[in-house]
Design goal:
Elements (H helix, E strand, L loop, with lengths): L4 H5 L15 E3 L13 E3 L2 E7 L6 H18 L7 E4 L7 H6 L7 E4 L6 H11 L4 E5 L2 E2 L2 E2 L7 H12 L5 E7 L11 E9 L2 E8 L9 E4 L5 H4 L16
Parallel strand pairs: 3-9, 3-10, 4-5, 4-6, 6-9
Antiparallel strand pairs: 1-2, 7-8, 10-11, 11-12
């Protein structure tokens, strides 16, 4: 599908150009996940690869948490809700799940290109600089995976990185662990897996300085004041139907 240029022209350009004292990460408030991320959040001004193990390894949920964080951050700074974009070639993003994740649908542009158009559409969105967070889901969900030409992904990552360099935009590229035979030239790579329904295993496989971190297993739900005092509280079920 072709991305309508008139739609992007109506969106505010130049989102989040970094100043003299930039906040280099987008803080993530999602259970204990932020504590496992460098600086407590996802990198801005570059491409973050979310390498998920299995189609239900939390990639979409983390990406939607980033969209929610960006939208709420804009409100706290006295502006309107920030625009975010989600490239969904598998056509599996579930609107009720997006709402349950706390993302305002009226400020989320969902684009569903064919696999052969994924790269062109993603780069066009990044170059518009109209979005605080751009999610490119190259995985999908079990039974509806994306058939993509992975040999072209290094070039795609380089183009996306050039498009958002020097900005506060975050580009999240969701891939399947092991799908790419060579490391992608991303600024940050996070490896995600789910050892249990309410646990997430996070490994920082690369940060902006090329460093590798140890894997950490964290809870996907926040610790309540009662739990912090040693009182048991029944576990809240995770929302289903959000995607990977």
């Amino acid at each position: 599908m072709a991305l309508p240029a008139q739609l992007l022209d109506r969106l505010p350009p130049g989102v989040g150009i970094l100043g003299e004292e930039p906040q280099l990460v987008l803080p993530i408030e999602l259970g204990e996940v932020g504590s496992a991320l460098p600086g407590g959040g996802l990198l801005r001004g570059g491409v973050v690869q979310l390498a998920v193990q299995g189609g239900a390894a939390f990639g979409t949920t983390l990406a939607l948490a980033a969209c929610r964080a960006a939208q709420q951050e804009a409100l706290r700074h006295g502006g309107e809700l920030a625009w975010c974009a989600f490239v969904d070639p598998s056509r599996t993003l579930h609107a009720p799940g997006v709402v349950r994740a706390g993302v305002a649908l009226e400020r989320l542009l969902v684009v569903r290109p064919g696999a052969e158009q994924l790269q062109r559409v993603a780069v066009r969105l990044a170059e518009s600089r109209a979005f605080a967070v751009l999610v490119v889901d190259a995985v999908g969900v079990p039974g509806c995976f994306v058939e993509a030409r992975t040999e072209q992904w290094p070039r795609l990552v380089r183009r996306l990185a050039l498009a958002v360099e020097g900005t506060a935009l975050s580009v999240l590229f969701i891939t399947e662990s092991g799908a790419v035979t060579v490391p992608l030239p991303v600024a940050q790579r996070l490896e995600l897996s789910r050892p249990a329904p309410e646990l997430l295993r996070v490994r920082v496989a690369k940060d902006r300085r090329g460093r590798v971190g140890l894997a950490r297993t964290v809870s996907l739900r926040p610790v309540s004041p009662r739990e912090a005092r040693g009182c048991e509280v029944p576990s809240a079920p995770l929302h289903e139907g959000v995607g990977s």
